[in-house]
Design brief:
The complex is a heterodimer of chains A (about 240) and B (about 250).
Chain A (H helix, E strand, L loop, with lengths): L4 E10 L2 E11 L4 E5 L6 H8 L7 E6 L10 H4 E4 L11 H12 L3 H11 L14 H13 L5 E5 L7 H16 L3 E6 L2 H7 L2 E6 L1 E7 H4 L7 H9 L10
Parallel strand pairs in A: 3-7, 3-8, 5-6, 6-7
Antiparallel strand pairs in A: 1-2, 1-4, 8-9
Helix pairs in contact in A: 3-4, 4-5
Chain B lengths: L1 H12 L3 H30 L4 H10 L4 H19 L1 H8 L3 H34 L11 H28 L2 H22 L1 H4 L3 H8 L10 H25 L4
Helix pairs in contact in B: 1-6, 2-3, 2-4, 2-6, 3-6, 3-7, 4-6, 4-7, 4-8, 6-7, 7-8, 7-11, 10-11
Classes of the chains: A alpha/beta (about 240), B mainly alpha (about 250).
Chain lengths: ~240, ~250
């Protein structure tokens, strides 16, 4: 079976700085894959190169066997929720989704369906500026789901969510995988990913691990957290705490 | 493509920018026409100007809508770059080339809307400003060409604003470049080095709407220069939009 995502020797340099170096991993269909790493580890850069938003310095990244830009009906097969991608100019949640639905050639009824699915139907008339962080995350998910995609790429979807929101997100992602969709999500919330993902990719500029959660945690005998820190090594500078 | 253009169109016409800018432009043009009228009311009795000249001048005063059309399309583009929404547009739009085309089509459509609105206001302005006065509008062929020139530069301005936004990306920088080039660079160059200054896009526009500035190009050449500026900005915009990483 063809891998949904195939990344081979991906490297990105910004001048002297190497953000991502020689990273290779695959994502199999129907799996929830957690992309883990510290802040600045290269997770978002890797996803941006996968989606053709940033040009790799070296290597290649394909989705369903094609670079994103050459994938037929890419926008209908891949749903994206990325940190840093803001809404359109529309004032309300529903207005924003209507613009993106129009871009995809979809009707307003689809907007209502995704709003219902992410639990925002009653708040979609509100101004986006007034959305809480949790509502913004749900709104981003709704946008990603508009085209009913086979693959979801979500960058830090749990950021800013309260415990209820995190639990909702976990169940939501699981339900997406149960429908046969593939989910690739980046996060630095280790415990969360441990409960959600089937496979793990750990980045710290270079690839540190790619495989199943079970293999990484030796079937649950070691925590994901210990394995993670063992693989990425100590932080360059210990954060100070008050 | 139709859906993509419709979405781009909706982005431009959503929010307050388009009507706030349109209202500001109308106010500026009315103020400018009021100034022209005051001057002309002194000159008409002396015979140093004519009703026909005044009619054309009042029509020409609406050229300032060009700046507003440029700002409206520029803001729509640069806002997307500043919020990161341009990434979603590129992801959902079926490729950057298609997105660029849709943005330019929507910008041109916006230019047409502003041009039609300004054209109607410009055509009506001689009658409105001279209502109840001893002088009457005299519509001549020159007035018709002036009106068409004003409308054309508004359309070009909308495209120019969109392309500058795509090339520069940063909203504040793009606005400063547009305003400085319009108010300082072109005028300054025309005065200091007229042989160069008349080839700027703003002075080529001035020639097309018959500003009466000394040293501007003949209208056919001015049209060629306008086309050249749009072509150069189009090539630069396309190259950068297709090749550069999106923010």
């Amino acid at each position: 079976m063809t891998d949904v995502v195939d990344i081979e020797g991906l490297t990105k340099r910004y001048g002297e700085v190497t953000a991502v170096e020689d990273v290779s991993f695959q994502v199999r269909p129907g799996r929830v894959v957690g992309l883990l790493g510290r802040n600045g580890a290269g997770k978002t850069t890797t996803l941006r190169m996968l989606l053709g938003l940033a040009r790799p310095t070296a290597g290649r990244a394909t989705v369903f066997g094609h670079p994103y830009a050459q994938l037929p009906r890419a926008a209908h097969r891949v749903g994206v929720g990325m940190d840093g991608i803001g809404p359109s100019n529309a004032a309300t949640g529903r207005g924003d989704l209507n613009i993106w639905a129009r871009t995809l050639g979809l009707g307003r009824s689809r907007v209502e369906q995704v709003l219902e699915r992410v639990g925002l139907a009653d708040d979609a008339h509100r101004k986006l500026r007034g959305f809480s962080t949790g509502m913004r995350q749900r709104h981003a998910l709704a946008t990603a789901l508009l085209a009913d995609p086979e693959l979801l790429i979500l960058d830090e979807p749990a950021n800013g969510l309260d415990p209820d929101g995190i639990r909702w997100l976990r169940r939501f992602l699981r339900s997406l995988a149960d429908e046969g969709r593939t989910v690739l999500l980046s996060s630095h919330l280790l415990a969360e990913v441990e409960q959600t993902a089937d496979d793990i990719v750990i980045l710290q500029r270079t690839l540190r691990y790619s495989g199943t959660v079970a293999d990484l945690t030796r079937n649950g005998t070691v925590s994901l957290e210990s394995s993670f820190f063992e693989l990425v090594g100590p932080a360059a500078k210990e954060p100070s705490h008050a | 493509m139709r859906d993509l253009v419709a979405a781009e169109w909706r982005k431009i016409w959503t929010g307050r920018a388009w009507w706030a800018l349109g209202l500001s432009a109308a106010l500026l043009c009315v103020l400018a026409d009021a100034g022209y009228l005051t001057q002309a009311l002194d000159q008409l009795p002396k015979g140093t100007t004519t009703e026909a000249d005044l009619t054309s001048t009042l029509v020409q005063g609406w050229f300032m809508v060009e700046l507003v059309a440029a700002l409206a399309t520029m803001l729509a583009v640069t806002r997307e770059f500043s919020t990161g929404a341009i990434c979603r547009t590129a992801l959902l739009g079926g490729g950057r080339g298609r997105v660029l085309t849709a943005k330019l089509v929507a910008a041109a459509g916006t230019g047409v809307v502003y041009a039609l609105a300004a054209g109607a206001a410009a055509a009506a302005s001689p009658w409105l400003f001279l209502a109840g006065r001893a002088w009457h509008p005299q519509w001549t062929m020159t007035t018709t060409w002036t009106l068409l020139g004003v409308m054309l530069v508004i359309l070009v301005g909308a495209l120019w604003g969109s392309l500058l936004g795509i090339v520069i990306r940063q909203q504040v920088v793009a606005i400063v470049v547009l305003l400085l080039s319009t108010w300082l660079v072109s005028e300054g160059l025309l005065r200091l080095a007229p042989k160069i200054g008349r080839f700027t896009i703003d002075e080529a526009m001035a020639a097309v709407y018959r500003s009466g500035n000394d040293g501007v190009l003949p209208i056919p050449w001015a049209l060629v220069v306008l086309a050249a500026w749009i072509a150069v900005a189009g090539v630069a915009g396309r190259t950068l939009f297709l090749r550069r990483d999106l923010p």
